TrEMBL record:
Family according to the record: Belongs to the acetyltransferase family.
Species for this entry: Plakobranchus ocellatus
Keywords: Acyltransferase, Transferase
Protein name: Solute carrier family 22 member 21
Superkingdom of origin organism: Eukaryota
Gene3D superfamilies named among the record's database cross-references: 3.40.630.30
PANTHER family hit by this protein: DIAMINE N-ACETYLTRANSFERASE, GH14572P-RELATED
An MF annotation (GO) of this entry: N-acetyltransferase activity
SUPFAM superfamilies tied to this protein: Acyl-CoA N-acyltransferases (Nat) (SSF55729)
Span of domain N-acetyltransferase: 1-150
Amino acid sequence: MDRLYFTSTKYKLIELILKSRETRLALGSAGNEFHEDLFCEKPKWQCVVATTASDPDTVIGYSVYYPFHSAWKGMSLYMDDLYVDAKHRGKGVGKLLWQKVTQMGLDMGCKGLRLTVKEWNKTARDMYFHHGCVDLTDSCDEHIMHLSKEGMEKFVQDV
Ligand SMILES: CC(C)(COP(=O)(O)OP(=O)(O)OC[C@H]1O[C@@H](n2cnc3c(N)ncnc32)[C@H](O)[C@@H]1OP(=O)(O)O)[C@@H](O)C(=O)NCCC(=O)NCCS
């Protein structure tokens, strides 16, 4: 692993991510919240980034993750995002980032790793299958339910 290393120095990390145009675009409108939620007193999520040894100031990939709990199944890790700069894809960077996140989950005592992937994203889906992921979409007998912020606000008013 001499080509890559992971940095956990938090201020350096966010600076690196925001400096990189492509990764900043990948974060989209969540960029500001990402910053606030990562560096508050009780961070809501964690992040690993990959840089090359020859250019440690440029982020070439990152992954964002956080533990979540189920009363029935215990703690699992949710990998919210895995991203590698287009120029650096196909060289093992995404796998290293994913492995690092997976190891953190094991170290935390997680009982599984959860992620979602878009229907159109065949490359990522194939990668996840290739390394042992199981698609629960059709078999888990559950539906993913979401309440928008407006929906939340409306619901709590419904007394
Ligand atoms: C998905 C993504 C992170 C992969 O990163 P990458 O650095 O190109 O991937 P790697 O080179 O590390 O390859 C990872 C592994 O997946 C495998 N893989 C890659 N593409 C594959 C495919 N089409 N089918 C099967 N396996 C595939 C590789 O073989 C490798 O495993 P191996 O080395 O054990 O053989 C990258 O393409 C990306 O950032 N895409 C845009 C963002 C995205 O879609 N993220 C996922 C959101 S859920």
